[in-house]
Write a structure and sequence with these properties.
There is one protein chain. With 84 residues, the chain is an all-alpha fold. It has one domain. It contains five helices and no strands. Helix 1 packs antiparallel against helix 2. The radius of gyration is 13 Å and the shape is globular. It comes from Bugula neritina (Brown bryozoan).
């Protein structure tokens, strides 16, 4: 997680760092409201930097849709490792 903070300090628009920060919030902290806010910030960043990259939009949306806990409350890290 430290590299995410460093990457965001160096470049506040780093899409990969923002993606991993959102995943950390969803998986480790269960901070759904904060993650929703950060997803909005990520969309604004992508609109500004990579606005014509539909593949990036699709892959990020598919990733965030797949990250969820199942009914048995298993750790969602397996899903993150599998799909990242």
């Amino acid at each position: 997680m430290m590299w995410v903070v460093l990457a965001l300090l160096i470049n506040g628009d780093c899409i990969e760092a923002k993606k991993y920060n959102i995943l950390h919030r969803l998986v480790r902290e269960s901070g759904y409201e904060e993650a929703a806010t950060e997803i909005g910030d990520l969309i604004v960043t992508i609109d500004r930097i990579e606005s014509k990259n539909a593949y990036l939009y699709y892959n990020l949306s598919a990733l965030f849709c797949r990250v969820q806990l199942d009914s048995n409350q298993h750790n969602a890290l397996y899903a993150v490792k599998y799909y990242v």
